[in-house]
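User: Structure please.
Assistant: Input sequence and predicted structure:
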Amino acid sequence: MQEVLEKLEQEVKSAKRAGRLARGMLEEGLDAGAEAKDLHAKFSALVGALTHLSQALENHYASLEDDTELEKVLILLKRLRAKINTPLASLEQVSTAKEVLDSLASLEKSVFDLEGVLMALKEHPALSAPTTTKATPKMAKKYCPQSKEELKKLVADESVHLGEIDISQITDLSFVFSHTTGGGGVRRRRSRTLHPPKL
């Protein structure tokens, strides 16, 4: 998620830079068509990065418990994308410097709004902390060992079903099945693979 945010921030900087350059050129009366084409390319890249972020956030949001703050951010991003697309489309049809400057003013306002949303998004706890996935009663884990030793004891206990063990707190799973206590039960379990949950 961090990479997607950084990519969008780079595109925001690039679009702002292009806007400043175009404004200077247009105010001097230089070729409006060429400036409109350059602006269109830069802001199209921004819309592409914004779309990519929206998709990544929607996927992230789907893995969380209801998060109304993140939901609001998703709605704001969709609105901003629509606000950017309208003047962006008009850049394809402009013929005067004034028309390009009018479109640019709308685009710059949307970019300013986008920067505010990005700042709020960076501070959102669901994006800075590890996520907790939605748990249904069927997925709830019965055992939550806090150490490798506790996990080894649970694995050795034949009455414990391995699927009931939450191993999310264990960072080192090496040799969990290699202990010699437990006799035949351990050997039977050796063939099973214990995978950490995907985050």
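Residues 2-128 form a domain with the Four Helix Bundle (Hemerythrin (Met), subunit A) fold (CATH 1.20.120).
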